[in-house]
């Protein structure tokens, strides 16, 4: 009798151990458990830690609440200004309602991935190439709103969306490189012209000051000579003042004019009359007599 009781107790303990082993579940700290009993949803979620379910009757679905980083495959598209590009992105999201994520959608990860790809194609078609290259923050916000609108009904919250890379055709890259080079050359020419204008203004002011003070020109000439003589040269170039050349030119022109005037005054007239612009002959025309 005692032996049979011991055997029954051992069998009961073994059955209990097997039941506990079959019903025991462990939910991690970053997870929540959703229980379906005979296909029907049990209210509430199982918190982290050790929990028990009814074997064969209950089915426990664990939902991860961590932020998921999902790369979006590169999408080919044509921008609004008819440029073919290839854009890839990355999306960060997390589950905020485990029950809805299990009941409302079959696979929330796959649903978010497909929604991100279609939204990325839509953003490419609505944007210009310059926006994709320089105004990504605004595009990221628009892409986040497009994905977050349907994801709310799935119990998923979109945390952030980032466009990673924009690939351009080789011909477009070369065109953009030529455009950037031309723009840099234009700016260099403008800066050089501005510098020439400022230098010319300063030189004009310096010339005005030197013209007011003739000694300043001589001092400048001596400074130039000293600067040239400081180098170890066998030839010394001496600048010649331009004002002196102009003075000699004016003097040379005035000498022939004075000689010409003197010769005109001293030349005698053939008829003995004084010559000149005022000496005109007195000529009278006789009147015809009437018959």
Layout of helices and strands:
Elements: H1 2-23, E1 24-27, E2 31-37, E3 40-41, E4 49-52, E5 58-64, E6 68-78, E7 84-95, H2 98-103, H3 108-126, H4 129-134, H5 136-151, E8 156-167, H6 170-212, H7 214-229, H8 242-266
Helix pairs in contact: 3-5, 6-7
Task: Summarize the model shown.
The protein has 291 residues and is an alpha+beta fold.
Terminus-to-terminus distance: 199 Å
The overall strand count is 8
Strand content: 15-25%
Total number of helices: 8
Inertia-based shape: rod-shaped
Radius of gyration: 52 Å
Helix content: 40-55%
Strand order of the largest sheet: 3-2-5
Mean pLDDT: 79
Structure description:
The protein has about 290 residues and is of the alpha+beta class. About 55% of the residues lie in helices and about 20% in strands. It has helices spanning about 1-25, 100-105, 110-125, 130-135, 135-150, 170-210, 215-230, 240-265, and strands at about 25, 30-35, 40, 50, 60-65, 70-80, 85-95, 155-165. A 3-stranded antiparallel sheet has the order 3-2-5. A hairpin with a 2-residue loop joins strand 2 and strand 3. Helix 3 runs antiparallel to helix 5 and helix 6 crosses helix 7. The radius of gyration is 52 Å and the shape is rod-shaped. The termini are far apart. Mean pLDDT is about 80; it is low at about 270-290.
């Amino acid at each position: 009798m005692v032996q049979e009781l011991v055997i029954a107790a051992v069998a009961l303990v073994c059955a209990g151990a097997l039941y506990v082993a079959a019903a025991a579940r462990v939910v991690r700290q970053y997870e929540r458990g959703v229980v379906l009993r005979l296909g029907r949803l049990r209210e509430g979620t199982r918190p982290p830690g050790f929990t028990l379910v009814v074997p064969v009757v209950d089915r426990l679905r664990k939902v991860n609440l961590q932020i998921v980083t999902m790369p979006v495959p590169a999408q080919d598209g044509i921008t609004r200004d008819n440029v073919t590009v290839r854009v890839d992105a990355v999306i960060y999201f997390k589950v905020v309602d485990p029950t809805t994520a299990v009941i409302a959608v079959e696979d929330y990860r796959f649903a978010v991935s497909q929604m991100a790809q279609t939204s990325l194609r839509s953003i490419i078609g609505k944007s210009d190439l310059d926006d994709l290259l320089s105004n990504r923050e605004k595009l990221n916000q628009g892409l986040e709103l497009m994905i977050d609108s349907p994801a709310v009904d799935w119990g998923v919250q979109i945390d952030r969306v980032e466009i990673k890379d924009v690939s351009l055709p080789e011909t477009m890259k070369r065109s953009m490189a030529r455009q950037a080079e031309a723009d840099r050359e234009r700016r260099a020419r403008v800066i050089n012209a501005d510098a020439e204008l400022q230098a010319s203004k300063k030189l004009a002011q310096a010339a005005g000051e030197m013209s007011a003070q003739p000694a300043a020109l001589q001092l400048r000439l001596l400074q130039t000579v000293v600067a040239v003589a400081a180098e170890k040269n066998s030839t010394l170039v001496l600048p010649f003042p331009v004002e002196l050349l102009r003075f000699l030119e004016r003097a040379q022109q005035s000498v022939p004019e004075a000689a010409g005037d003197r010769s005109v005054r001293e030349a005698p007239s053939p008829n003995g009359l004084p010559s000149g612009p005022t000496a005109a002959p007195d000529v009278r025309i006789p009147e015809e007599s009437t018959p």
